[in-house]
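Batch job 17 of 40 flagged for manual review because the log was empty.
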Amino acid sequence: MSKVKNFFARLGARLKITDEAFIKFLPFAGWLSFLALISIYISHSADKKVHLIDNLSKERQTLEAEHTETKERLTKLSLESKVISKAQKLGLKQPEVRPEKIVIKE
């Protein structure tokens, strides 16, 4: 038992935190705290960038869908039957004879 008591006595003496040991440990603790703050800042910055990228991706998808929809509407409006019906509403008539294509040979 004396060996065990002796071992724990020596261990307790080594692990005792004195004022001198505490003062020696302060710069290292400060450095670790500084590194922890930098790590937290970088993590938050990365999270903000991820959210920004997600929002921009959603906006791009919305704009892409709007572009496709508008292009489809324009295609439907440019059909000959739609153009003729709109021209008739304006009082224009479809010509009886189709125009001839003029080709110039050099």
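Reviewer: the log was empty due to a logging misconfiguration, but the result itself is present. The helical segments are 2-15, 19-77, 80-89. Unflagging and moving on to job 18.
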